[in-house]
């Protein structure tokens, strides 16, 4: 009898140790910071000199969602900017306590009406970027994640992927060639005063937030601003937006005349149109996630891998070499970045360090180990467009996206590395 009681005590001790060391309950926390510059800064919509701004429509944000289960912690951050390089992201990672840097995913929404975060050099090699503003953003991003950690609480999840309906996005180069699927991860508090209410709702959808663009003297999160507001007013909690494979050239559907293509197509490039599209995408996301089953205490998994790309493009080499951010372009003219794979319950997430064309997105999603595939575009780095080798320098339409990509093999290397990571990782 004594023998049994000893082993029972041991078992109880073991269980107790687990419960005081690492909670086996899924916890989620979320927090945000406003990163609108004051005074306003010029807006950057791509390579070239940013354009002066005189007003703002909505605020720019850094938004963070943190997951914890057992000894695993994962942070997902979205930044309202055109692209957020790992030069900046790694500085935030160093300021975040309690999450290993490789478990922190930082993605840009790709708004074309935010300050220049690449510090694009002009023809003389000079950049007009405000490095003090970028330093401040680095701290705000870290603060948002650290606050999200402090707010971790037991949560269940609802996850869904389905087609978002209505006039939201289209492919400017070939109208029907885009991915209409919208992925949603919603965390719901299971205890305390907020029990049953949303902690955070993450929306994953491929679209260029360039309704306003950089040439209108306006600083804005574009359609992402109204999307956040709508999600938060309807569902509560904090909204996040992670872009998808939106390259070449999946954009907001602001067309005023259906069926008319190319030159002469009239567009509604107004803040009202940002509101219409942002709210429609938010409503669709909430409609899609509403019918999803509640996942009690799902598992989470995170892995990161360093991948390298050759930089064949002259323009990209020039930017990487001359930007005051001091990019890590090594002697062989390659850049490296962090590629992440997450399993969140039955869903799988892969990051893309740039703007993959939609055909790459379809192919990668089809080969992921899940019926709930998520692709986080422009995440951990944003190295321009990513085309397959057969698309590279092919159609005249692809001249611009080929020129602003690292090179012919960027898409191929990404696909190979991403699918290898899928193969080497557990199924969700
Ligand atoms: Zn783009």
Description:
The protein is of the alpha/beta class and 428 residues long. Helix content is 28%, strand content 26%. It has helices at residues 2-21, 86-93, 131-150, 224-235, 271-290, 314-322, 358-366, 399-403, 410-424; strands at residues 27-34, 55-56, 61-69, 72-79, 104-108, 153-163, 169-171, 181-189, 198-205, 218-219, 238-243, 250-252, 294-295, 300-310, 334-344, 347-351, 355-356, 372-376, 385-386. Strands 1, 3, 4, 5, 6, 8, 9, 11 and 13 form a nine-stranded mixed sheet that branches. Helix 2 packs across helix 3 (131-150) and helix 4 (224-235) packs across helix 5. The longest helix has 20 residues, at 2-21. The protein is globular. The two termini are 43 Å apart. Zinc ion binds next to loops. Zinc ion is lined by residues 110, 208, 355.
The total of beta strands comes to 19
Q: What low-confidence regions span 5 or more consecutive residues with pLDDT below 50?
A: 1-20
Biggest sheet details: 9 strands, mixed
What is the helix tally? Answer: 9
Rg, rounded, reads 22 Å
Order of helices and strands: HEEEEHEHEEEEEHEEHEEHEEEHEEHH
The share of residues in helices is 25-40%
What is the overall shape? globular
Mean pLDDT: 93
Fraction of residues in β-strands = 25-35%
Bound small molecules, by name, code or SMILES, are: zinc ion
Termini separation (Å)?
43 Å
Which class of secondary structure composition applies to the elements?
alpha/beta
